[in-house]
Amino acid sequence: MISETYALGGDLPVRRLGYGTAQLTGPGYWGPRGERTDAVAVLRRAVERGVTLIDTADNYGPGIAEELVAEALHPYRDGLVIATKGGVVRTSDSAWHVEGRPERLRAMCEASLRRLRTDRIDLYQLHRLDPEVPMAEQLGALDELRAEGKIRHIGLDSVTAEQVAQALALTSSIVSVQNRFNLLDRGSAAVLEVCEAHGLAFLPWFPLANGALTGEAAAALDAVAGRLGASRGQVALAWLLHHSRVLLPTPGTGSLTHLEENLDAAALRLDASELSLLDALAGLPVPS
């Protein structure tokens, strides 16, 4: 049977199926999406359903997603883990600027602390490595914040296997990686192997292939979904939970109905033949 929980960093037990907040903001993760009360309701329902890992970022909005998390969930109940990200600055719905200078990382982390209304962030993820700043300086800044008690654990986002190995050589504070990975896109398989070898959590982004579970994959998904009385998306999430014990998908949505559907995927159990059929989808074209 697959494990339903994972000890993030060895000391923060979370349910493996979490919730991501990007879809609470507008197109391009810019500005608000819909009514604020609806977003608050989705966040609260996720926690009511047993979600214990909330994944957000300072540039979703920017700032809006973190503010919604605090509005909906603060004061945070015991056992609820909030993960956020810093290291990217937004200037429009299509402009993303990597910023890894130590003083800027510190400022971004402290701004996230204020928006989240907390004294310490459970998991602070470096949203992108800045190629213009030595990795040691970027991670050193986060280690300093950790020593000050403002960060509990550090994570990386969108990195190669080699970069993960380099980061682990620089600091023992790394507990997670967040890369694109899903049923159809397994380009980060080597990163996943490193995570498994070192006991790091892997939070796959676009766990539902950004809604592109169509084409040749649809027939295989429909075959499994039909037998289980599930949707394509539920099968895709269940596959992630079965594929590796360190995978912690955090699908996002602004819809209560879609939230319920996603979270119900945790109850699905795939047998060997179903897993074999789904594993074979790795050779199909990856949606853009």
Task: Report on the architecture of this protein.
The chain has 288 residues and is an alpha/beta fold. It has a single domain, classed as TIM Barrel, CATH 3.20.20.100. It is 39% helix and 17% strand. The protein is built from 10 helices and 11 strands. The protein has helices at residues 36-48, 64-73, 102-116, 135-147, 161-170, 189-198, 216-228, 232-243, 256-264, 272-279; strands at residues 5-8, 12-15, 19-20, 53-55, 81-86, 88-92, 95-98, 121-126, 151-157, 174-178, 201-202. The strands form 3 sheets. The protein has a 7-stranded parallel sheet, with helices on one face. The chain has a two-stranded antiparallel sheet with strand order 1-2. It has a two-stranded antiparallel ribbon with strand order 6-7. Strand 4, helix 2 and strand 5 (81-86) form a beta-alpha-beta unit. Helix 1 crosses helix 2 (64-73), helix 1 (36-48) runs parallel beside helix 9 (256-264) and helix 7 packs across helix 8. The protein starts with a strand and ends in a 9-residue tail after the last helix. The mean pLDDT is 95.
Describe the structure concisely for a colleague.
The protein has 288 residues and is α/β, with parallel strands linked by helices.
Counting structural domains, the number is: 1
Average pLDDT, all residues: 95
Ends apart, CA distance between termini? 33 Å
What is the count of DSSP helices, taking H or I runs of 4+ residues? 10
Instruction: Quote the CATH topology.
Output: TIM Barrel
In the CATH hierarchy, what is the class? Alpha Beta
Q: Portion of residues in helices?
A: 25-40%
Molecular shape:
globular
- Cα-atom Rg, whole angstroms? 18 Å
Number-wise, the strands total 11
The poorly predicted ranges are: none
Q: CATH homologous superfamily - what is it?
A: NADP-dependent oxidoreductase domain
| Major beta sheet, strand line-up | 3-4-5-8-9-10-11
Biggest pleated sheet: 7 strands, parallel
Structural class: alpha/beta
| Topology order in helix (H) and strand (E) letters | EEEHEHEEEHEHEHEHEHHHH
Tell me which CATH architecture applies here: Alpha-Beta Barrel
Strand content: 15-25%
